[in-house]
Predict the structure.
Amino acid sequence: MQVIKITPRGYCHGVVTALQIVAQSIENNELKKPLFLLGEIVHNQNVTKAFKQAGVVTLTGENRRAILDTVTRGTIIVSAHGIAPDLIIEAKNKGLDIVDATCSDVYKTHDIIKEKITKGYDVLYIGKKNHPEPEGAIGINSQRIHLITNEEDINTLTLTNQKLCITNQTTMSMIDTKDLMNHAIAVFPQIEIINEICPATQQRQEAIINLTQKADLVIVVGDVKSNNTKRLVQLSNSYIKTKTVRINSLSDLNIEDLLDQKVETVAITSGASTPTIMTTEIIKFIEQFDKEDQSTWDNNSTVDIQRIIPRVKRKTN
Ligand code: SF4
């Protein structure tokens, strides 16, 4: 079967760095043990499983504060999504070691927000409710940073501050973010626009929007919790306008989708937190798939998830 490999796809620099930081922490004997991940390091259950097998405990809870409340010893690892600054202080006060795997693009947004707050602005922040990245950004100053999830959130704001800016979670849809920013301008004409979709997210979304080859089926590989994966599905539905399915691994693939007589070419992309080996296995499977030959239909994933953990480079003397 024909496969269109949408490029770029998969891991971004922030995820690669975060995984390397956790792998290095496992090997670092100077860090207090156990190692606790404060929420999933990136939103992918295969990654979480791989680190669990390596002895790193992923803690979950209502929010980062609630999770931190449960930790009394060892080391906490902050995920790529970042964290509110006061929680870092709280962790230090508890005597915990802290490893920070926050993506540099998330820190860039935090720095912009901090600067605007210092200059007296109120900040409108477009993001997803209950997602750790908005939680960390809004935690910089929850009185002056306002979560925006839809137009109604903008309409119902009662702000007298003339200094206003609007920014966003790094992994939002480019299209939805632009629409919400335009709506904010209509309501608050003086508002400053600071678009913080990260380059990795933008490039992966543009690759879908600009796909010129005809695909009969689109597969987005990624976790149900991954925001950037969801946005790829959303854009595929809007722009490629063909059946789009999201799967986490080869085993999730519904063979009936490939057996459909209309399906001859499949386009594949993956979210920024999706391990490359999961996507590669799916691509190889579909390339060898033959509707007429049942021996090519066995889609049990054989990926060794320990291969998701990057190798730690050791110093040589
Ligand atoms: S999607 Fe963007 S912000 Fe998120 S980890 Fe990757 S590069 Fe960083």
Q: What stands out?
A: The pocket of iron/sulfur cluster is lined by residues 12-15, 80, 103, 105-106, 170-171, 198, 200-201, 228, 272 (CB under 6 Å). The chain has a mean pLDDT of 96. The longest strand covers residues 265-270. DSSP finds twelve helices and twelve strands in the chain.
